[in-house]
Amino acid sequence: MKAYKAILFDLDNTLLDYDASERESMQGAIRRFGLPDREGFLWEAFRAAFAPINWTYWSERMARNLHISQVLEYSFRDTLAQLGHDGVPAAELAAAYWELFCSSCRFMDGTPELLPRLHGAYALGIVSNGIGEAQRKRLATGGILHYFPHVFVSDEVGAAKPDRLIFDRAVASLGVPRADILFVGDNLKDDYEGARAAGIDFCHYNPGRKPADAAIAPDYTIHALFELDAIISREEEQR
């Protein structure tokens, strides 16, 4: 067994609960503008309409050179129009959502307990697809930014997982051989494929126990963050 010197983490839905933060921030924003008081407004319908619209703008943002504020404004605008809720200023609604989201930090189970155990024993870093402003502010809000001297976010690097470039930047920053780095993430496309392309061992965090293709073979699989301790302890025995 190898003894790792550094551990890189995906952020959203690995250490931080993105889904919970997004939901709470969106609900908070629409309450500011009185949308729940409108006749015919249903939260479930709003969220269901917003998701595919937002994904389209998010996916096209680099090709169209869209700022995150535009992605959100256009997403809210189109959702409101689709559902017939006219008169709500989409740009202001988007700004309210972004303010709430950037100041939100909901942890995945086990995150606050895991990081102090790793801090000081391993070089720690983040490799995340997202917006640097939001990711850094959310880490700071949760009081865990100081654990991560190495933070690499796709919009700052100019490359998104699974592109190995973002991993190569992280490896160079850590200053240890890539064979001594473990990457922990939940996504079998962005995280698994990216780590494999970069020659980094991968631990699949799979709390929902979702089945994976038989051709996908992560080095480790865990269903709770505390299970990472067992992997680390086995590695430490070899030191």
- Roughly what percent helix? 40-55%
Question: Based on helices, strands and strand pairing, what is the structural class?
Answer: alpha/beta
Helical stretch tally? 10
Q: Name the CATH superfamily classification of the largest domain.
A: HAD superfamily/HAD-like
Which oligomeric form is depicted?
single chain
Q: How far apart lie the N and C ends?
A: 10 Å
Strand content: 5-15%
**What series of H and E elements makes up the topology?**
EHHHHHEHEHHEHEEH
**What would the CATH topology of the largest domain be?**
Rossmann fold
Strand order of the largest sheet: 3-2-1-4-5-6
Low-confidence segments: none
Mean pLDDT comes to: 94
Q: Into how many domains do the coordinates divide?
A: 2
CATH class of the largest domain: Alpha Beta
Q: Describe the main β-sheet briefly.
A: 6 strands, parallel
Q: Can you name the CATH architecture of the largest domain? A: 3-Layer(aba) Sandwich
Report the principal-axis shape: elongated
Topology, number of strands: 6
The radius of gyration is 19 Å
Describe the protein.
This is HAD-IA family hydrolase. Pfam families: Hydrolase. This protein has 239 residues and is of the alpha/beta class. The chain has 2 domains: 143 residues, HAD superfamily/HAD-like (Rossmann fold, 3-Layer(aba) Sandwich); 84 residues, DNA polymerase, domain 1 (Orthogonal Bundle), CATH 1.10.150. It is 49% helix and 11% strand. It has 10 helices and 6 strands. Strands 3-2-1-4-5-6 form a 6-stranded parallel sheet, with helices on both faces. Strand 4, helix 9 and strand 5 form a beta-alpha-beta unit. Helix 8 crosses helix 9. The longest helix has 22 residues. It is elongated. The termini are close together.
